[in-house]
Each structure stands twice: as C-alpha cells, then as structure tokens.
Design goal:
By secondary structure, this protein is mainly α. Helix content is 63%, strand content 0%. The protein has four domains: 107 residues; 141 residues; 91 residues, Serine Threonine Protein Phosphatase 5, Tetratricopeptide repeat; 114 residues, Tetratricopeptide repeat domain (Serine Threonine Protein Phosphatase 5, Tetratricopeptide repeat). The chain is globular and about 65 Å long.
Length: 477
C-alpha cells in the first residue's frame, strides 16, 4: 500500500471561524468566563480559560467533550455543534490530544458527508451511520458471525488485508495511510462497543490488532510524528481489544492485551498510554478477584498520569483504586479513594483530558461508586447510586445503550439483595428489553445472578414475569 504524501502530515488545522464569530468583541478571557457561568447555570463544571478558547478557534479542538457540548448548546440555543464549526464526534472519537495529520473538514464537507446538515444529532457518532450500516452492526453483535462483524467494522477496521499483507511491507516505509488505518480501527471499535457491547466484536477485532503490531515491526516510518502516532495507535488498539475481552469474560486474554499495551508504552516512553493501560488493568484485576493488584495498578496509573493536568483522568483512576479497596473489604481505604475521586471530578473537564475518556461523566461516576458499595455489602446505598447512574445516562447519553443496560443491571442486583424483589424485577425487565441492541457477557452474568437471588420470591408480583423472560434469554457462547 502506498503511503500518503509527506505533505499531508504537515498541514495546519483549519481555524474555526464560526466559533470566532460567536465570541464577537469579547476577549478570549471574557468569553471563557461566560462559558464558565453558562456551565454553572446547567450544573456543569468546566475549567474553560483563554487558552482553551484559543485552541478551539485555532481548530486544534475539532469536537468538544460532552460537558463542553452541553454548555455550548446551552449558550447558543437553536444551534448545532456543526453550526459552531465543530466536526462530528464520529470523526475524532478515540483519538488522543495529538496533532492531527490534516485539517478538519469544512462545514460544507460536513454537510456533504452527513445528509442531515443541520440535524441536531450531527455530532452524535451514531447518527452519522446509515440505517443499513446500523442494521449490519446490530446483526453482527446479535449473531456473533465473524463475516458480519467484519462488515460492521468495514474497510476502516484496517485498510490492510491482514498481518500477511502488513508483513510484505518489511523494509519499506510506513506512512500516513497505514497509521490512519490503525487510528480508524480504534475509533470504530470504541463506537461499536459503546452501542452494542463486546461479545460479537472481540474475535474479529483481534485481527486489526495483529496487523497494527506487524506494522510496527515492518519497517521505518516517514517521520517521527508518524512513528509516534503508530505506536500510540497500536497501544490504544491493544487496550480497546483488551477491553472487549474483559467485557466478554475472557479475563486471561484481556490481561495479555493490557500487558502488551503497557509494554508498548514503556518501550516508547508514552506516559499517557501507560496510565491508560494501568487504569484498565486495575479494573480487570478487580473483576478477576485480585483486589490488591487492582489497588497497586491504580496507584501506578496515578503515578503515570500525575503530570498531565487532567483532573478527570485522576478521578477515574481514584475510582479504580476505590474498587480495589472495596474488594479487600477496606471501607476506610475505599471511602478515601471515593472522596478523592469526587473532589477531582468536581474540578471539571479540561483540555488535557484524553479523548478515550469521553464515556466518563456523572453517570459513570455514580455507576462505579455503586459497584464499590455493592462490594462492601451496602446494597441500599449501592442501589441509590445505580439508579442515579441509569437516570443520568438515559437523559444525557442515550446513545450509550450498553452503559444504560449495565447501570440498570447493577440496580436490579442491588435491589434484589436489599430485599426489594418487586423493584429488582422491574429493573431486570428493563435490562432484558435493552438486550435486543446490546450483547455483553458482563451484563448477562449480572442478570443471571439477580435471577438466582430472586428465585425464592417468584410469587412476588412481577418477579415471575422477569424469571420467565430471563429463562428464555439465549445464552452467550
């Protein structure tokens, strides 16, 4: 495969003139203050300053994270993110805060690529798919067919045919096209997982990962920035595939993929990738019944991330540590980590937050805290946080179907253990209704546990209905 011309990697971002016009006569600092005031009006916390405004206007921030999105749409009612000069999130999901290889598309290009033009969903990563593509993706995750999942990943899964073709590049230069293909694989996998869950995707996603690492060994890159993007993309792809293994119950595979990402980070001196790998390793260790390892991995992630200036990243890592302490039955350690997580979260989002953290908002914070209280046996308290998580997710990020199902499954289990079988069954039925779109072994396992807890209450109103429908649920293979 021919590489893209080197000039493509030297183009500057296209300025966001639409956003600059909205600032009007205000200075960047004055406009930043107005953004912070608007955020407080809707209960958000953003650390907007003149530097952030300058980066937006320079085109360095192609699409804001979800907190900034809500603030901007509140400030300019009736406008869409496209009207504000931003690119659809589907074009940037999964990419870090590294320099892009070319200019973001113009507003006209965005309209040409998305027929809805001024559709308010224009920055929704799922709204830019055609109905046919969405149907293909749904079939892929419901059937687990390798061929169908390949169609869901599409040509952007990896532009190369596979490791054999990548190996043919040995001794040749790897260029923009190959690096872009690796980044596209990360983006597509994360989008599909957000929507549908991991089970149908994992086996197919392993092939692009093998190709990416073959590319690292195949030959030299055209320039240092391309090399940096390639190793970072390969590492992020290893983490993404590791998460798919994790969420589908393949813990040994997940551990191997996370270790591969960590090794890549260490070899290339990429602290951001190292923090991400340790963060996911901590989560896996907790789920695999190794809580002390979860604590140690979270602490290692904190050390790797402490110089980035991202309060949200440190908050998430603190929640990973809290989960480990809860698994150890250490209530004091868990409460300290939870307090730190909330304090860091309340400092708001920042422009140094990694792109992969777009899932981490108030709903995920509440959901992870629910899991901590559940591990400590405080079922009523856990249920309260799980209920809050499901409500926030349904209102703010309805496209994250998997997360809504996960939080609701957590709620059902907590209610069942808290001695509220009727409410637990009601929540369980809501999860069953979502499984037409989501396939996750984690969620199915949680429902199975809830069903076992509810068996003695089958005569309670609603419980028998849940148990009967759950019994008819196809089992994951």
């Amino acid at each position: 495969m021919a590489s893209s011309p080197m000039t493509s990697s030297t183009q500057s971002p296209r300025p966001n003139l639409a956003f600059r016009q909205l600032r009007g006569q205000h200075s960047p600092g004055e406009f930043a203050a107005a953004v912070r005031r608007a955020a407080r009006e809707i209960g958000e916390r953003v650390s907007c300053d003149a530097r952030y405004v300058g980066r937006v206007e320079a085109g360095e921030i192609r699409c804001p994270n979800y907190a900034y999105e809500r603030v901007f749409l509140h400030m300019f009612p009736g406008r869409t993110l496209s009207d504000l000069g931003f690119a659809p999130r589907a074009l940037v999901r999964g990419r870090g805060a590294r320099a892009e290889s070319g200019p973001p598309p113009t507003t006209m290009q965005l309209y040409e690529s998305h027929p809805s033009g001024s559709d308010p969903r224009a920055c929704d990563p799922y709204a830019v798919q055609t109905h046919e593509e969405s149907d293909v993706q749904r079939r892929a995750f419901m059937t687990g067919s390798t061929a169908t999942v390949a169609a869901a990943l599409g040509p952007s899964g990896l532009a190369l045919g596979g490791p054999a073709e990548a190996a043919a590049l040995h001794g040749r230069r790897v260029g923009e096209a190959e690096v872009h293909a690796v980044e596209e694989a990360v983006r597509k996998i994360r989008l599909l997982d957000d929507r549908h869950g991991a089970d149908g995707l994992y086996r197919r996603a392993a092939a692009p990962l093998r190709t990416a690492y073959t590319l690292l060994d195949a030959g030299t890159t055209t320039r240092q920035t391309t090399s940096d993007r390639l190793h970072a993309g390969a590492g992020e792809l290893a983490i993404s595939v590791g998460w798919l293994a994790h969420d589908s119950g393949r813990f040994d595979d997940a551990r191997s993929h996370y270790a591969e990402a960590l090794a890549t980070a260490r070899v290339y001196g990429d602290a951001a990738l190292e923090a991400h790998a340790f963060c996911n390793t901590a989560f896996l260790a907790r789920d695999a019944g190794r809580p002390r390892e979860a604590v140690r991995a979270a602490q290692a992630a904190t050390r790797a991330a402490r110089h980035f200036g991202s309060h949200r990243l440190l908050s998430l890592i603190a929640l990973r540590e809290a989960g480990g302490w809860a698994g150890l039955g250490d209530r004091g350690g868990c409460e300290q980590a939870l307090s730190r997580a909330h304090s860091l979260f309340d400092r708001g989002v920042g422009d140094d937050d990694p792109e992969w953290m777009s899932f981490y908002g108030p709903a995920e914070l509440a959901g992870l805290e629910a899991q901590c209280w559940s591990a400590l046996g405080e079922w009523g308290r856990a249920a309260g946080h799980a209920r809050l998580a499901a409500a926030i997710a349904s209102a703010q990020t309805p496209q994250f179907t998997r997360n809504i199902a996960l939080y609701t499954a957590e709620l059902a289990d907590d209610l069942a253990r808290a001695g509220r079988p009727d409410e637990a069954a009601e929540a369980g039925l809501r999860v069953l209704a979502l499984l037409g779109e989501v396939q996750s072994s984690r969620i199915q396992s949680m429902l199975a546990t809830t069903a076992r807890v509810l068996l003695p209450h089958r005569s309670t109103a609603g419980v028998s209905d849940f148990l009967e429908k759950h019994a008819c649920l196809p089992r994951a293979v």
